[in-house]
Every structure is written in structure tokens, then in C-alpha cells.
Fold each of these.
Amino acid sequence: MVNIGGHHDPSLSLRCLSKLHSGRDRVIRYIHMLALKEKAKFAFFAYPYVDAAATTCPAPAGRLARIPTVFRTDKILDIRMLIFAVSKPIFMLKNILFVFISLFVFASCGGSGAKSEGASPFEKAKIFLADGDRHREKGEDRTAKKLYKKAVIEFENQVRKDPNVKGLASLLGESQFRIRDFDNAIQWLNKAVAEDKEDARSHQYLGYCLVNKSKIKEADASFKKAFFVDKTGKVKEEAIKELTDIGELSVSLGTNFASQGSPAQGVEFQKLGMRIMAMGLEYSKYDLDLARQIQTYAKEIDNQILIDWIANVIEGEENKTTTIILNK
């Protein structure tokens, strides 16, 4: 029901009344005038609706041509008009939000998962392994370990499905090494090198596993095979870095055992760590920069045994360098 000039006209709804006009420009000017004069808070809601309808509704006679009952000073506002005016932009906003949310979900979940959808377990596992390596390089070890575990699960699914896929034994062994399952990793990596003796990466990771099992001689033999097969020098470079990291970890564990009342066990871990770092130094041909890096680490953890050992190594290499220069 609409109030027009003090009379009630039940035949007109306010929504229909908002369409009536005596001309597009006149309607718009009137609304703007009332918005300023009467400070009608909701006048701007009607503007798009009246503007769109201005060319389709016939102009009424008399006072109806002036339209603005909805903007009278009594501030009567038909709830239907408000709902219409507000619902359209809200509906559009909802659609926009839906699109953005969909894109966000796709970006979050659709990366590796989207790529692996419908793929074989072997392909999924390779994606998890590669993602784990990226997170490990960033220092995000926990995330990397979760991805390595997923890789192991998928590689094992592939074993049940078809164990003869090329490269399966090597990649499964590498993934098991990353989650520190050294015994199973050694089995699969031995299988890999038996299938392909020229597989430098399998020899390399077999060496890592053997080092962690304190089998230094066997590890050294495996590393030397890897270095011989790999003509680029990349495997040796990776091995030197990895051995330094493993050695430092072993020394840290030894220090922790010693501080917790297990000095004998602590000394064993420290000795193992130094032997592993010595392998890395040997493969680097006793690179002094690497030796000084180890020396800095030894001072940081305040391990006197390691400090003394690496100081002797550095002194010996510096004396060799001096001797060579004097002989020239």
C-alpha cells in the first residue's frame, strides 16, 4: 500500500511506483535533489533501479509524475525496494567471492595434487619426492619429511602393482633414506645397483645409508663407484655437503648424550661424526674453506675434541701449502 498525497492507493506498490516517471532526467534530478535536501539515507539505492527503468515505464499524470513518495520527509521506505536494491549487488559480490575462493582452493590444493590426479602411484611418488626435496632445501624439514613419507607409501603401492618399473628401486631407496629407514633403503638401493651398475645416484645414496649405519669402509667403496661413474662432478659435490651435514649431526648427538649422563655413547657418536666429516674432507682434497667451516661449527657447539681435530687438519694442510710454495 502506497501513501500518495495523503491518500492510500492499494493498487500501487511502492516498487511499481518507483518505476513511474515523467522523464528520465527529471526523475534523476528529483532524486538527487531530495537526497541533498531531505538527507534521505537510502536515496542512492533507488538510483540504479529508476535509471534502468526510466525508458520503459509510461509517465503518469498529475502528482504521480513527481514519483518520489518513497523519499517523502516521513522517510517511509518500502522494504521490498530495499531488498531489490541491495540484493543485486550482494548477489554479484557473492559470485565474485565464489570465483576467488575457487581459485584459492585450486591454487592451494591443485598444485602437486592436481598434477598427480589420475596418475600411477609411481608418478605420484616422484612428485612427492621432488616436493620434499624443495622443502628440505628451504629448511622446512618437517614438511619435507611428511612428503617423503607419502612418497614411500606411493612407491610401495607401485611395488604391489608392478615392481619392475624402471627406476623404482632407486627412488624408493632414496625416499626411505630421507625418512631414516636405512635398513630398507639399503635393500632397495642394492637392488638398484645390481640392476644398473652405472647408476651413480643409487651408489651415492647407498653410501649415505651405509655411513649412517657406521659402515664407513663399505660407504667409501660405494661413494668411489658413484664418483667414477659420474663424470660431471655433481655427485661428489653433493656427497661432500651431505657428509659434512651427517657428520655435524652425529657430533651434536654425541654432545647431547654426554650432557645427559651417557659420556661413553657420546664419545662414540662424536668419533663417528669426525670420521664422516673426514671422508668429506678427503673427497674435497682437504679443501681449507670446508675445513674452516667445520672449525666454526666446532667452536659454536664448544666441542673441544672436534676443535682440536679440525685444528690439526687445517694446520697440516697449511703446512703442505707452505712447503709447495717454498719448493717452487
Amino acid sequence: MTNIMKQLIHLLTTLLLLVLLAACVPVETANLASDGAAADAIAAPEEEAMAETRTITHVLGTTEAPTNPQRIAVVGYNEVEELLALSITPIAKLFETPAHFPLEAEDIPLIGHNGQPNLERLLVLEPDLIIGVEWAMAEFYDELTQIAPSVVVPRTTFAEWKDALRFTADVVGRSDQVEELLADYDQRVAEVRVAIGNERLDTIKVTAFRPYGGGDGFLIWIDRSFPDVIMAEVDIQRPEAQRAQLPDDAERIDNLSLEMIPLLNADVIFFALPESGVFTASASEDLANYIEDIEASPLWAQLEAVQNDQVFKVDGAAWNEGSIIGANVVLDDLERFLAEAGN
């Protein structure tokens, strides 16, 4: 083979390699472009969902809140209970949570002290939505809105706990789920009513009361209080003497001293004990001493429920104020003590 032929073959081989390389480059580029477009197509809906907002009107104004919040902080109390019931664990809470809350509540970071939010700590947690109650949020509302969209849950009385729960569910996009929860609650109310029985419900009067945390008096729940509306749904009756003492538009009879123990008189008494872990050592000791004073009083010994061993101590944190988790605790207590006591 001559040198000319060798050079020609070499030249043709080189040209063929160049053609093949040229043909491959656009394919790879096209694939890269296609992969990038696919990634963008996947990411776009997620980013769009995160970016979507809607206007929510509440007592402190209007808020452009995310339709699908992922990091919700609570500057309040009952809102933690509501979110947990809706299968959402908030990233921050203002208060320690009580024992009847789900266990995951214990691990939620605390961002407050004595009802005052620590804004710096909240900022570090990077919430995309803040919800809470007016009395805790009003003073800091402008600062809170600089951290994340902020919404106040309406709470006029604890008797309206279902309305508040529905509002919270709507804000976080769980309206369907909340109606399922409330339907289950209604079914539970009916079951408790049947368990106690119409005959017993028609004849007994029930008192529910709680001493103050500092041991300086007690209150009786009645009418528009949280436990009273639950008992009313079960058709449980309250002593008429208490209704006569109830101030207009009040949900309980407050600031009662030991001399007012006769007002507790009823067939059954629910004695709600405040959760001792939320008080200082001295306040807890004062509370324990005050409970002893109540039970040692000659007036206490004269009550019908005391004489008939129909006084039942219950969880004051669940009975005092709350939402659907606490409401189900109250229902469990009503069934446990009233149905069993009547059989």
C-alpha cells in the first residue's frame, strides 16, 4: 500500500470519527435539556403549592396565609390540641402541654415563658404559618407577621370549641378531616348517653368544680363553660341552686371560698384537680393544702355526693378548657363514673 493510500485511509477514518462525535453531542445535550425540563416540571408544582396563598380574615386583620402550610408555630394553647387532633405536629408551642395530649406534644419546642413568646427563638424555627389566640398574639402581632403569616383563632368562650376547631382546620386545609372528627365525637356522645341510661340522666344532678392553682378558692363550671356544654350534650342536669348564682353571660361561678361549699351539693360531684406539674413548688404545695382544707371542712362532709361516695376526681387540665382531645377525655370520665356508679 502506498503512502498516499495510507494517508487517505487515515483521513477518512478521522472524518468518520468527527461525524460520529458531532452526532453524539446534540443527543447528549438534548438529553440533558430533557432531564432539566423534567426536573423543572416536577419541582414547579411543589414550589407552586408552597407559594399558593389565600386571604384569611380574623380579629386582628387579614392575612395572606399559605394554603398548604408545612411548619406551623402556635402562639396559644388550645391550637396545639387542635393541630394534633388533625394529625399535624406544630414546630413550636407557647406553653407546656398537659398529660392527656399525645406523646409527641412533649417534643414540640417551647418558645414562651408565662405566656410571652420568645420572638428570637421563633424566628430561628422558620415557621411558614403562625396561629394562636388573641390575648397571646395581640401585643406582638406586628413582630409575628414579620416572621411568618399570622392568624388569630377566634375564641369568645370555651363553649364554642367546635367553631374554633373548624376555623383552625380551615386555615390549615383540613376541613374534611375535622368533620370526620366531629362526627366521631357525636357518635361518642350518643354512646355515653346510652351507657348512663335515660332513667339515671332524668334523676341525677351533677356538679363539676375546680380549685384554683394557687389554692385560694374554687370555681364551679356551668352553662357556657367547656365541660358544661359537653355534659349538656349528654343530657346531664346541673343543680338549680348553681344557676341562680350564675352571673349574666358567665360560664362559671368564680372566686368561691370554703364557706360556699354547700353550693356544690349534688348527687354526683366531679372534682377536677389542676395539673400540679405546671405550678411552682410553693404553688403546688398551696394547692395540695387547699384540697385538704376542702375535704376536711364540716361543710364538705354534709354534701350528698360525699356522704354517698359519689365524688370523682378527674384531670383538671382536660376538663378546664380545650378542644376535641379534652372533650373525649370528659366523655370517657362521664361514662366511667356515671354509668358504673349507676350500676
